[in-house]
Amino acid sequence: MRDALGLMLASVVAALVISAIWFWTSSPRIELTAPNSLSAAQVQRVAAAPPFKPLTAADDVEITAAIPEKPAIRTQPGSACATPDALGVSRVVEIDTAGGPRFGFQHFKQLDFLADREVVLTFDDGPWPVNTPAVLKALADECTKAVFFPIGKHATYHPEILKQVAAAGHAVGAHTWSHANLNSKKMTEQLAKDEIEKGYSAVKLALGAAPSPFFRFPELQHGPAAMAYLGSRNIAMFSCDLDSFDFRAKDAAQIVNTVMTKLDKQGKGIILMHDFQKHTAQALPSLLQRLKAGGYKVVQMKAKAPLQTLPDYDEGLLKDIKLPVASVRSVGSVVQTVSR
Ligand SMILES: [Zn+2]
Fold first, then answer.
1. Homologous superfamily of 91-320
2. What is the pLDDT of residues 17-72, one digit of tens each?
3. What is the distance in A from the centroid of ligand 1 to the CA of 337?
4. Residue 126 Cα, ligand 1 centroid: separation in angstroms?
5. Per residue in 244-287, pLDDT tens?
């Protein structure tokens, strides 16, 4: 009996040692996907968790008591949140964009769907190197979701960054092709349509998937003709409840202060920011902390169905821009000296 107990204990110890070795030798997998900002406590939690697939040496030993009720923190993209007290998402709302509903009380006082202390995070003008990835990291660290309104041209410059936005589970709408003011005197109906449709086709081309039928007017300038057109295309229009004015902030702290001051006064709202802006990217980690500390909850907006882009614009865009952007052929394979 004592021998059997000793053997069992030895087996358990051996299994734990093998598990630990297995874990540490395979730890680069975790470094690849986990943010670098894991606290010591979180690292301990990760380290204390058993491997997903027990080794065969441990198969014949009952060690169920050593397996915690909750499995190891999954650090794969799209998995459960790795931050225990993250801001997260309090609820997900699905938007039926039929007829072109309008959001944001700064201009459209129609659909008041947010409860007290609820916010929606929105980002315009990307995708852009450094700043957009920094925004994505800040959102991922807090396991929260936003809506992005990229500029079509920027999407063609940096499709790989826009793909990261969509892969992280954020909604990706559009913000015209070239950030033209759709309410200017020079703007014709045809030009406005071109700006809108080419913008969506560019986002689709960058993502390799259909965008969300969510639209934000550049400079929040909405004209009646463009609004009617968007309505006919069943695209939801976004103004905002709260403008961060991050594009003219002198530093990150000013953005945090502007947003929190307005939010504490208004109590809720769709927040307009720009992932294109350096100060916004720098401000986001502390802004999300302040939202959490203030008891604010993030609402994730999702479209009920994706937007069908127009084939004419998809094809026109392909002709317009030179594809592929980066040549994969070496100079030697293209240019050969055949005589001297
Ligand atoms: Zn903009």
1. Glycoside hydrolase/deacetylase (3.20.20.370)
2. 444 444 444 443 333 333 333 344 333 333 333 333 333 333 333 333 333 343 33
3. 49
4. 9
5. 999 999 999 999 999 999 999 999 999 999 999 999 999 999 99
Taking the centre of ligand 1 as the mean of its atom positions, its distance from the CA of residue 65, in whole angstroms, is 55
Task: Calculate how far, in angstroms, residue 217's C-alpha sits from the geometric centre of ligand 1.
Answer: 7
242-243 and 236-238 beta bridge pairing: unpaired
pTM: 0.73
Q: Per-residue confidence at 322, pLDDT binned at 50, 70, 90?
A: low
Concatenated DSSP letters of 3-32: HHHHHHHHHHHHHHHHHHHHHHHTTHHHHH
The Å distance, Cα 334 to ligand 1 centre, comes to 40
- Whole-angstrom distance, CA of residue 258 vs CA of residue 273: 11
How far apart are the CA of 200 and the centre of ligand 1, in A? 15
Cα–Cα distance, 73 to 90 (Å, whole number): 21
1 CA from centroid of ligand 1 (Å): 75
Domain spans in the chain, listed from the N-terminal domain onward: 2-66, 91-320
CA 291 to chain centre: 18
Q: Give me ligand 1 centre to Cα 336, in Å.
A: 46
**Structure token digits, residue 26:** 């395979």
Banded model confidence at residue 3, pLDDT cuts 50, 70, 90: low
Which of 53-62, 81-90, 186-195, 328-337 is the least confident region?
53-62
Distance 175 CA to ligand 1 centre (A): 7
